[in-house]
């Protein structure tokens, strides 16, 4: 279970951008989070994925309260999450070939055995051909780069996926392909999903339930 309770967070302690927000995702559940631009969806998603320290409130992941965020979070908690952001180019090191980008979390956690096989397997899963794997981010399209970022998010086999506007920059066929990859992964592993977006039709089709930000902010 992913349980966010009474979360207050922002970028300046005196003026939080989200206040007293609670949201839970059950194991294996897919929850869509819908709301207008700037309301704080990404901030909440980053708190949930241990990437942003809240000013107040609690986060409990699979029964264990989170006490530290970002690089201070215990590895076991950090690696339970796979995260994909809207802007692949901002989340990809421009110096890394796609193969190294996908392998980054394996190297960062010292899991060096079988890296090449795992990258090949995931590249096929997300629909990246071998010739693309040696290219760097500026040598591939936004859709190809996002495929690599999704592969990177799955490489440690996370129990939780946070997709923050993952498909907002993509065409319909790439969107459908990436959603399918996430859903196949969830069907195989039972991972839970928090999917942030603007597109109600997509989120309703993709997720078990869609939550409106306005309802969260009222409750
Ligand atoms: N790094 C930052 N520093 C300061 N303010 C920020 C930062 N990131 C976001 N904000 C502000 O926090 C508020 C919430 O931003 P957030 O990105 O969480 O909203 P959002 O609902 O995800 O928006 P969008 O749908 O446009 O992505 C906005 O007013 C934004 O300007």
Automatic annotation (TrEMBL):
It comes from Streptomyces ambofaciens (strain ATCC 23877 / 3486 / DSM 40053 / JCM 4204 / NBRC 12836 / NRRL B-2516). This is ABC transporter ATP-binding protein. The keyword Iron-sulfur does not apply. Keywords: ATP-binding, Nucleotide-binding, Transport. Gene3D superfamilies: P-loop containing nucleotide triphosphate hydrolases. Belongs to the ABC transporter superfamily. Residues 2-218 form the ABC transporter domain. GO terms for molecular function: ATP binding; ATP hydrolysis activity. It comes from the Bacteria.
